[in-house]
Amino acid sequence: MAGALEHGPGDSAFPPLKQIRAGLLEIGYAEVGPAHGAPVICLHGWPYDIHSFVDVAPLLAAEGYRVIVPYLRGHGTTRFVAPRTFRNAQQSAIALDIIALMDALGLEKAVLAGFDWGARTADIIAALWPDRCKALVSVGGYVITDREANLQPLAPVAEHAWWYQYYFATERGRIAMEDKGKRHDLTRLVWNTVSPTWDFDDATFERTAAAFENPDYAAIVIHNYRWRLSLAEGERRYEPYEKRLAARPVIAVPTLTLDAERDPFTIPGNGDAYRDRFTGPYDHRTFKGIGHNVPQEAPGAFARAVADADRL
């Protein structure tokens, strides 16, 4: 297996995408690998899309995994079923989307792997619904949002990295996200700054930026970042889950956490800061010279981490 997973980035493309009704959404997703293979669900972050895993998926499929890569709500071909549904992006809502997807696909449990919003979503499922998570790969470790902690300022260098979060708290930021040109340039700037060593080309960015044309994209992004800072309300239906998450529940499923050395959001300490949140079989790795978009910057190493987590 180790040899097969040494592959680097290439010219991979997903097969034609699928759609499935799942809870509040019609979820668009890519699927690669044998239909009866052990399922792996790969979850993207912001400002990214399913193509963060376009080189990871075939590597895992070659090892017999059934790889499912969904667009999160507000991205790509994923759509809300009802026009009046509140465009809510609080963390438990997104996690329940993935539970609904698993139900719709008939998946009892899966290996969950993600970064950014995707890592948070995977962490939440592993914490609240451990029976649905066979193993976990989480970039950044324990990234479940702590809204009470978010009321306190960070060190200035850390606040600087979060500039867009504070921009989105303003009407200027909301208007910028609704403007196609400004949204394009803003997300491209984020790619450049959080992945300083990744030499991607224009076509790679534009392929992903197409997912930002979703009609709900701006509303979902703005709500997500405002909700984190307690500047926007969630929905009552999710309060029981958020109360449980506020208690910082431990994660007991087999877990492999990843840190990216050049990611400005990586917490110093080689995983020590969040080690106590993982109580089951555990491993940790730091990827040298890699930035925020870990699966697309280091697909071979990410795929290997998924396979290794599955064996913990």
TrEMBL record:
Name all AB hydrolase-1 domain ranges.
Answer: 39-293
Output the SUPFAM superfamilies linked to this UniProt entry. alpha/beta-Hydrolases
Identify the keywords attached in UniProt to this record, alphabetized: Hydrolase
Entry superkingdom: Bacteria
Q: Which Gene3D superfamilies match?
A: alpha/beta hydrolase
Q: Which GO terms describe its molecular function?
A: hydrolase activity
Q: Which InterPro entries match?
A: AB_hydrolase_1, AB_hydrolase_fold, AB_hydrolase_sf, Epox_hydrolase-like
- The UniProt record lists the keyword Glycoprotein: no
* Name this protein carries in UniProt: Alpha/beta hydrolase
Lineage start:
Bacteria, Bacillati, Actinomycetota, Actinomycetes, Kitasatosporales
